[in-house]
Design a protein that fits this description.
The chain has 16 helices and eleven strands. It is of the alpha/beta class. Strands 3-4-7 form a three-stranded antiparallel beta sheet. Helix 2 links the parallel strand 1 and strand 2. Helix 2 packs across helix 10, helix 2 crosses helix 11 and helix 13 packs across helix 14. The relative contact order is 0.11. The N terminus and C terminus are likely disordered. The structure holds glutamic acid. Glutamic acid binds next to loops.
Length: 405
């Protein structure tokens, strides 16, 4: 933006999104990023929306999409626009927007910002092998960037398949203005001419993501650190289209105890797992918030509403947060103790019913048991289990069905 030019983004109402790809169980990382988007939007009176990025059909799973919706609802991270709730900028599934991306790629070709690439897989493979052998960084060599208009027309007439690539500047730098990390400079010479449109006419993640963020009016992109490397391409794409880029925030990645990126080999990562174990949504959200943010006065136990009220990006810490299950259990225990007993008993009932026959037990007595036992329990599952071991009072009233743990 030039000096003196109005910053349109500053004047626009905050609108943020999560854009998960439905490829497996709903991931704790989606909830973590969703939480920060939600808190920022709500704190600023803005909108939080959900878009499904399902252009990679080989990895798509329908149940996974539904599970993302359910997990967000369970946590109370309610989005105002999305595939299952609708909204003015739909459709919110990229697979239903397929028809619109090619037009934008063609637009960039017309503007001279992108070009047709007719290179075959064989040529690209040979190029990669040559670069490897010569210990050069891998990347497209710009072969088709030099084609004349006539040559392009000729190849198109011959129905040679093509992709569309972005023309990256040969020299200079691209600056990613990250609101959490300051300016991050990338040498343009090290960035490939990114494919925007594949030969089957499908967009790549980069094109679809930017076109959709623009069309959906996204003002702030809050996503995980792992996307930083893609961001200079995104900045260049915004420039090529002549669109105002959003504000960028790259949140620290959740990590295993050994500091590697969180993975299911070392940690349960599915939100379903935590729900089935009997973690409360309040505990889960509070814990995820603590992974990247702290509340004024270092208060550790808080609700979503309290977070929304106090949320600013000033209190984000960028150190790699370790997904510590002991801490999660501790936070969850606090929320179990804070919850009105009636509500907790209602949530705990299915966990008890898996172990005991509650039919002879009066509601009041059940609530009393829950109230006594919750002090030492970290999850609803543990609450039910501990009731059997430590409550004589309880065992007087119930027939022990089985212990499934
Ligand atoms: N589809 C990407 C993902 O799976 C979205 C990344 C972004 O937020 O731009 O996380």
């Amino acid at each position: 933006m030039k000096k003196g030019e109005p910053n349109l983004m500053e004047d626009r109402k905050v609108k943020v999104r999560i854009a998960p790809s439905p490829t497996g169980d709903p991931h704790v990382g989606t909830a973590y990023i969703g939480l920060f988007n939600y808190a920022f939007a709500k704190h600023n009176g803005g909108k939080f929306i959900l878009r499904i990025e399902d252009t990679d059909r080989t990895r798509y799973s329908e149940t996974s999409e539904q599970q993302i919706f359910d997990a967000m609802k369970w946590l109370g991270l309610n989005y105002e626009e999305g595939p299952d709730v609708g909204g003015p900028c739909g459709p919110y599934r990229q697979s239903e927007r397929m028809g619109m991306y090619a037009k934008y790629a063609e637009q960039l070709v017309e503007k001279g910002e992108a070009y047709y690439c007719f290179c075959t897989q064989e040529r690209l493979k040979a190029l990669r092998e040559r670069q490897e052998a010569m210990h050069q960084a891998p990347g497209y060599d710009g072969h088709c960037r030099k084609l004349t208009k006539e040559e392009v027309e000729d190849l198109k007439k011959k129905n040679i398949p093509y992709t569309i690539r972005l023309k990256m500047p040969y020299d200079g730098q691209t600056i990613v203005k990250d609101k959490l990390r300051g300016d991050i400079a990338f040498d343009n010479s090290g960035i490939d001419d990114q494919v925007l449109l594949k030969s089957d006419g499908f967009p790549t993640y980069h094109l679809a993501n930017i076109v959709d963020d623009h069309l959906m009016g996204i003002t702030d992109v809050i996503r995980a650190e792992e996307w930083i490397a893609s961001t200079p391409k995104h900045v260049q794409l915004y420039k090529a289209f002549g669109w105002q880029e959003p504000n960028w925030y790259h949140m620290p990645l959740l990590r295993n105890a050994d500091k590697t990126k969180i993975s299911k080999r070392k940690n349960p990562v599915s939100l379903n797992y935590y729900r089935e174990e009997g973690y409360l949504k309040e505990g889960m959200l509070n814990f995820l918030a603590l992974m990247g943010w702290s509340m004024e006065g270092e208060k550790e136990i808080f609700t979503l509403d309290e977070m929304v009220k106090e949320f600013t990006f000033d209190r984000i810490s960028l150190g790699g947060p370790v997904f510590d299950l002991v801490k999660l259990a501790w936070v969850n225990n606090h929320h179990m103790r804070l919850k009105p007993v009636k509500e907790l008993a209602e949530l705990a009932r299915p966990f008890y019913e898996k172990l005991y026959d509650l039919s002879g037990l009066k509601e009041e007595k059940f609530e009393r048991i829950v109230e006594i036992i919750r002090e030492g329990a970290h999850t609803l599952k543990e609450l039910a289990k501990l009731s059997d071991i430590s409550s004589l009072y309880f065992s007087n009233f119930c027939l022990n069905k089985s212990i499934a743990f």
